[in-house]
Amino acid sequence: MVVTNLHVAPLDAACITVRTSLNSKAIRVVSSTRPVEGMDIVFLRVDEPFDMFARVEHEVEIRGGAKVMSIGYGLYSSQATGVGTLDGEPLVSRGIITQVVKLPLEDGSPAEQMMLATSAACWNGSSGGGLFAMPEGKLVGMITSNAKVESTGMIYPQLGFAIPTAVLRAGLDAVLCGGHVQTSERVKRLWTMQSTHKDVPQDTKKVKL
User: Fold this and answer.
1) pLDDT in tens, 170-191
2) How far is residue 188's CA from residue 196's CA, in Å, rounded to a whole number?
3) Class at the top of the CATH hierarchy for domain 57-194
């Protein structure tokens, strides 16, 4: 079973390329499902086992300021270099958790980690990579997106967002049980980055004191 972002491997993907520091190979997709409604997650059943994997645990306790490491294959692609990403090695960046957002995944359920913001750098192509707690190396989330300024298109690699393992585990449990997670509207709004407050007027001369 492989879990990654839906924008990385769409539901109709017939084959995916799995890359580790040891090798890179194409693997046939047997089936795919999106068990967590409204979230950028897809689970893929593949026809080969893996020698290397990260265990998806239930919620891993982590707080703002905790040291983390991002690992992914973004920035340089094998198509661009012709030799693979940095000779097969992933891009690694260290940083901290800058914020932990907790909300109920489903209406009526207890609040859990629903988003992790991190200063560990993430680049274009890093999506689906892992965010790991340091120094123990536990998987705490899956890299999903960067911060982007809509007006300029500028992307900030030092502000990334990850889907916590609590959400990944809920999705995995749903897949194994043949179920589906009805994501709460609050979580959907969180991940679509909808505004949660009114902007401060830019023209301060018009603000009454």
Assistant:
1) 999 999 999 999 999 999 999 9
2) 12
3) mainly beta
Residue 96 Cα to chain centre, angstroms: 16
Exposed, middle or buried: residue 138 (CB in 10 Å: 0-12, 13-18, 19+)? Answer: middle
pTM for the predicted model, two decimal places: 0.82
User: CA-to-CA distance for 14 and 113, rounded, in angstroms?
Assistant: 32
Q: From residue 91, how far is each of 4, 27, 50, 124, 156 by CA, in Å?
A: 17, 22, 21, 11, 16
Query: Could you tell me the residue ranges of all domains in the chain?
Result: 57-194
Q: What is the pLDDT of residues 121-162, one digit of tens each?
A: 887 778 899 999 999 899 999 999 887 666 777 777 788 999
